[in-house]
From TrEMBL:
Pfam families on file: Peripla_BP_6
Entry keyword Signal: yes
Secretion signal, residue range per the UniProt entry: 1-24
Entry protein name: Branched-chain amino acid ABC transporter substrate-binding protein
Originating organism: Rhodoferax sediminis
CDD domains in the record: PBP1_SBP-like
UniProt xrefs under PROSITE patterns: TAT
Family to which the UniProt record says this protein belongs: Belongs to the leucine-binding protein family.
Amino acid sequence: MNISRRRLLNSLTAALCAPAAAFAQAPQGGPIKIALIEGLSGPFANAGEAVYRNLLWAVERVNARGGVKLPEAAGGHRPLQLDRYDNKGQNEEALSALRSAIDDGAQIVMQGNSSAVAAALIDAINKNNEREPDKQVIFLNYSAVDPILTNEKCSFWHFRFDAHADMRMAALMQVIKDDKSLRRVYLIGQDYSFGQAVLREARRQLGVQRPDVQIVGDELHPMGRIKDFMPYLTKIKSSGAQAVITGNWGNDLTLLVKAAKEVGFDGKFYTFYGNALGAPAAIGEAGVGKVVAVADWLPNVQGSSSEAFYQAFRQRFPKPADDYVQMRMQLMMQALAQAIEKAGTTHPVAVANQLERARVSLGGQTGAMRALDHQFQQPLVVGVMERQGTPGVKFDVEGSGYGFRVIRQISAAQAEQPTTCRMARPS
């Protein structure tokens, strides 16, 4: 690395890692409360804790620069405060947590690990904000990707910062359509709204992009309750499938790929989340060149800004097991801080009106909110699992020795999908 590039990386990393203590010079008003309503116990607790680390780092970086700058009448500089509410992965627990968060003074709600929970929160927030205008809240969604949430169920109060399932599938299809050796594919997913949406869209897009590919299996399984995927992988192997398409996440993905390794399934996995939360370590050597993942960003995206961003996160969370950084969550917090400052108030209607116009950049990644349906528009990347140290794989995942080499980059314009949203807005 030449001296000028090293200096640039060092300066970028220092800026991203500015200590939270720097905020102590600036605060004036009380904290702006953010409620994280997520599964922090149960079968997907690891995913919930990974989210918390990402959001905590994002909050720390906003607070390190002095918090959110507001007029004196609105409290002047105010820190962000991230409060945890465990929904245990259940709708009713999430609704109970929402009530508690509102009673505790939260004006921002964040959730993402489960589209079913997100749908329940959208309905509850719509009702709350209509009935209790003095207790309105905004919902920022970082990973609940059922397309219905920004289509039929779109809401003025809901903003999604992840690419939805149809967008992700379209990105994967750009790779699948070029795989001329692929003739037979197996579809498997979690039996809830998101998993169903993934398989439905996989069937549709295969029919359009690769009508020559035969779907030899199409199966949904209970979410978070399967401890042994061996029977499923035995069926997949015996079907003659050359590849699996899945939207599985968390332990349902990890156990799925572990079973594939155990039964000797030699096909590819086209995944939404194969790059994180234990999957690369579980697959091991068998996944090299075979596990494909789509994401908004990957650690091995080329560029000094991207590298500095990733290095800063690893400095903040140095344990290999904690290495699960999500660019979109950082952009989401940047967008929130920007919207509050431009609104000059924390009033949810004013902040939502500014969030509709949000455009933010970090680590070389730029995204913008689409006002029509509150679906964030950003570039996507597709990567394939390789050994760390091979060309294009400087960084591994969770200390596994395996990372993802970027094989396709999709611009925000290419990733954009139409919407059926007919949004009702406050008068």
